């Protein structure tokens, strides 16, 4: 289980967020919340109006892995209150709604990797030109209200070779095998991606702002010294998980 949070304040505005993660080798659970708000931005000669804002976001997710199959369910609720947009003819009165996502993945030890995602949203949006900014004469008041319901899906199939291995020796052996077979593939490859496939270890390792720490790539031209790279990765994994 891991609990993270952050807070910051800049120029009369604040941002708070927190998230709770819990997982084991089969199940993963996520609960997150965020709130932010701010007053009109200030400069030496006064305020920039309207630039005040307020927003909340809540997310909950659950994932389960069963052998070659995994399922991820996510729900999010966004609630944006009054927010000034001085560059536009109207300001946001509200923007709120529900966001849904369900992703199923079939990832056998070899052969094919297929992912299908179903996603949807129900959103309400309202804008005016008289609530936050200096109101024009009543005859020029404007109000816009919109609602939308969206539903879609995404199907992705990866025909790249996939193999589930156990231990550093099998990882190195597979990388060396791919290096030897590189010219025989009907498509060009530049290396191998090594991933940890347990939820609890993935969450223990975490991620940087750009990529997960539980996955590394090894270019074919850099297989010399690959054992040292992977060994360092595994040691970091063991230390992080032990803590």
Q: Estimate the mean pLDDT confidence.
A: 85
Biggest sheet layout: 8 strands, antiparallel
Give the neighbour order of strands across the main sheet.
Answer: 1-2-3-6-7-8-9-10
Domain module tally: 2
Which residue ranges are poorly predicted, with pLDDT under 50 across at least 5 consecutive positions? none
Number of strands: 12
Into which percentage range does the β-strand content fall?
Answer: over 45%
- Our count of helices gives 3
In helices, the fraction of residues equals 10-25%
Rg, please? 25 Å
Rough outline: elongated
Strand and helix order: EEEEEEEEEEHEHEH
Distance between the termini: 12 Å
Structural class: alpha+beta
């Amino acid at each position: 289980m891991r609990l993270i949070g952050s807070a910051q304040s800049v120029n009369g505005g604040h941002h708070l967020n927190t998230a709770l993660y819990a997982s084991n080798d089969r199940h993963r659970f996520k609960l997150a919340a965020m709130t932010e708000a701010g007053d009109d931005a200030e400069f030496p000669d006064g305020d920039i109006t309207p630039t005040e804002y307020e927003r909340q976001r809540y997310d909950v997710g659950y994932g389960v892995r069963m052998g070659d199959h995994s399922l991820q369910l996510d729900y999010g609720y966004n609630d944006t209150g009054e927010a000034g947009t001085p560059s536009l003819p109207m300001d946001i009165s509200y923007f709120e709604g529900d966001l849904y996502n369900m992703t199923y993945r079939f990832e056998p030890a070899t052969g094919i990797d297929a992912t299908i995602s179903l996603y949807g949203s129900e959103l309400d949006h309202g804008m005016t030109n008289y609530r936050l900014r200096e109101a024009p004469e009543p005859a020029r008041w404007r109000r816009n209200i919109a609602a939308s319901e969206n539903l879609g899906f995404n199907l992705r199939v990866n025909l790249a070779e996939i193999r589930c291995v156990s231990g550093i020796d099998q990882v190195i052996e597979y990388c060396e095998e791919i290096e030897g077979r590189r010219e025989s593939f009907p498509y060009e490859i530049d290396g191998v991606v090594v991933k940890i496939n347990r939820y609890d270890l993935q969450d223990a390792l975490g991620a940087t702002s750009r990529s997960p720490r539980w996955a590394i790539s090894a270019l074919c031209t850099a297989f010399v010294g690959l054992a040292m790279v992977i060994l360092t990765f595994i040691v970091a994994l063991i230390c992080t998980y032990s803590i």
